[in-house]
């Protein structure tokens, strides 16, 4: 009996693996179009920006050129910035100098955001950039510092093969509608809340 | 009236920003403990592995040493692997050679997984690794190729300051219970389903 159970188990296992392979093969067959993608990484969970920077690493492995624009974070001591600035194929802009929620002035913040966007525009108009990461763009949009139509228009008119990754909580619906891929990072359990400080190499 | 509306708007904006700052400050004050974290990146959405590799970049920016172990993926042409193998501070192991769902043999897959885990163990016992990424570990666990108790035990006994990031769909409950941080990547919209092929620098 034990032997026959083992045979059954192996057979069920093989069936399950075959079904899984069929599903994957069918999806690959359907997918055949090549174009630059617009990806949104949103939600309250960890991993939005780090996922974007992982794609930067992936792109660099394919000898692609990467542009990064970070809104909000005026700091320049993050591990990712130190690391990627060492790579000639990466252009890195910190655009949020002076606006975080410590800056309580709408006009000033709007002007900072608009100046920042003009730098993003130069990358969205330059086909030399294979991948453009716009980190934490959702905040300037949410707070009304940037005009959504302007942003959508620049994204639409970018070079055909250019990938763009946008990160930040609460991505506006209009932005998600324009995107090819939207992932929500959901915070199931978070170390920060349970009294553990932000950690180098993980959060910073 | 228009002027007074603008004043109201600015005042409401300032109030909102002040509330947001209070929330952030309080969270920072609560958080004060330093230790190596166990992070799980799970869910069906894009960005689990790329997020782990973004943390690798972040860690390298802090001159930390990174170990990567990839289960399942027997391929060696991914952008992330090409890129990170160029960096001396990174040790990269592909452990899934020969098991994907193309391999329809339970015993063979289990043995491959156990051999792979023994390599992960060497990193989990070596405090020289500041960050260990175990990519797509959930599959060997889900398919019963690896013993959960063995895995949990090795994770528990790792060096105090070592961070571990585990990725993969359907992370088992026992693993999530052991983790400090669990993020679920939810697939809200996916380019692959709408007929666009996997793209270099984004998916590969």
From TrEMBL, chains A, B:
GO terms for cellular component: cytoplasm. It comes from Nitrosomonas marina. NCBIfam families: cobA, PRK05986.1. Required for both de novo synthesis of the corrin ring for the assimilation of exogenous corrinoids. Participates in the adenosylation of a variety of incomplete and complete corrinoids. Gene3D superfamilies: P-loop containing nucleotide triphosphate hydrolases. GO terms for molecular function: ATP binding; corrinoid adenosyltransferase activity. Keywords: ATP-binding, Cobalamin biosynthesis, Cytoplasm, Nucleotide-binding, Porphyrin biosynthesis, Transferase. It catalyses: 2 cob(II)yrinate a,c diamide + reduced [electron-transfer flavoprotein] + 2 ATP = 2 adenosylcob(III)yrinate a,c-diamide + 2 triphosphate + oxidized [electron-transfer flavoprotein] + 3 H(+); 2 cob(II)alamin + reduced [electron-transfer flavoprotein] + 2 ATP = 2 adenosylcob(III)alamin + 2 triphosphate + oxidized [electron-transfer flavoprotein] + 3 H(+). Pathway: Cofactor biosynthesis; adenosylcobalamin biosynthesis; adenosylcobalamin from cob(II)yrinate a,c-diamide: step 2/7. It is found in: Cytoplasm. One of its GO terms (biological process) is cobalamin biosynthetic process. Belongs to the Cob(I)alamin adenosyltransferase family. The keyword Cytoplasm applies. Its EC number is 2.5.1.17. This is Corrinoid adenosyltransferase. Its main location: cytoplasm. Residues 8-28 form the Cob(I)alamin adenosyltransferase N-terminal domain. InterPro entries: CblAdoTrfase_CobA (IPR003724), Co_AT_N_dom (IPR025826), P-loop_NTPase (IPR027417). PANTHER family: CORRINOID ADENOSYLTRANSFERASE (PTHR46638:SF1).
